[in-house]
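Translate structure to sequence.
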């Protein structure tokens, strides 16, 4: 009987060492992206992050020649959706489209199941956001001064819907600055809070300009913008400072991050694509219609922004003696 020749022992040992690496080598050979990308939004549909995510995802689908799906995961002031991405595989197929409050304010308010810096790879700052104080059309106040005066004279008369930690903190700052007694009502995102003020569930919200259609239809009334200058979308609406309330502004942004450990070449490609997309005339026009300022930063720039704002919000929360209740 003829014997089958044996392989040299060194070849067998080399094959045994290489065997576990074969799936990794095969994966590395795949061009990115080779399957659909998931963009998790940590707030409800229709809000700031959802609007920006859908605009960005449509353009990324075109440029990457791959489906990019938006997946809203609201809850716990953005913590639930953010944690999903923190624990996802760092392969570029799960991304986070978040806003400033979820990434930089929550560390000052809650014990988090993730590290907002170490567990993420910054990709790009997409846009800076502003805000406007809106009331339901049935609220009798026509100016910010009238709203404050009525809230002072009749404690608990007005309710304020807050879809994020940042918007709740702004509401608390307004109460402290004006002496207005307003009932806080939490919501899971700026979309649900807008639906609440339109439907009369609450009397007022600070809206990051996602509800302009309702302003035009007369369902809600703008009383003041929370910026350092008037909005071109609402040129007749004063700033909070012009209305006599100083030191309060909505400084926010929308940004894209990935799980920590995502390959640098993937992070770099996505950052480059996003910067190109936000520079497109039609994208800039759509963002401007929401009073959003397109940015398109590098990963390093976004990382520095996150670090600086985490430190800032910890200081602001401590100085305001603000305690999260939800």
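Result:
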């Amino acid at each position: 009987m003829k014997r089958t020749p044996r392989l040299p022992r060194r070849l067998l040992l080399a094959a045994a060492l290489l065997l576990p690496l074969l799936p990794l080598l095969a994966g590395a050979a795949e061009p990115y992206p080779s399957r659909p990308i998931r963009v998790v939004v940590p707030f409800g549909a229709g809000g700031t992050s959802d609007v920006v995510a859908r605009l960005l995802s449509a353009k990324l689908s075109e440029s990457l020649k791959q489906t990019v799906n938006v997946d809203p995961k609201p809850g716990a002031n953005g913590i639930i959706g953010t944690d999903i991405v923190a624990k996802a595989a760092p392969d570029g197929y799960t991304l986070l489209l978040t806003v400033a409050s979820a990434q930089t304010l929550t560390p000052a308010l809650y014990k988090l199941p993730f590290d907002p810096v170490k567990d993420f790879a910054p990709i790009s700052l997409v846009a800076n956001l502003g805000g406007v104080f809106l009331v339901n059309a049935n609220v009798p106040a026509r100016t910010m001064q009238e709203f404050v005066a009525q809230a002072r004279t009749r404690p608990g008369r007005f309710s304020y819907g807050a879809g994020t930690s940042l918007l709740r903190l702004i509401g608390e700052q307004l109460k402290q600055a004006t002496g207005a007694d307003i009932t806080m009502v939490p919501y899971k995102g700026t979309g649900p809070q807008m639906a609440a003020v339109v439907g009369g569930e609450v009397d007022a919200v600070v809206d990051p300009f996602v509800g302009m259609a309702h302003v035009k239809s007369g369902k809600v009334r703008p009383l003041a913008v929370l910026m350092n200058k008037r909005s071109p979308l609402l040129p007749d609406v004063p700033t909070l400072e012009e209305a006599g309330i100083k030191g309060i502004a909505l400084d926010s942004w929308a940004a894209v991050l990935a799980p920590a450990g995502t390959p640098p070449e993937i992070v770099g490609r996505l950052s480059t694509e996003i910067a190109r997309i936000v520079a497109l005339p039609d994208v800039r026009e759509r963002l401007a219609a929401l009073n959003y300022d397109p940015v398109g930063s590098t990963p390093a720039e976004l990382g520095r922004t996150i670090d600086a704002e985490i430190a800032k919000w910890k200081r602001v929360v401590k100085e305001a003696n603000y305690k999260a209740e939800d």
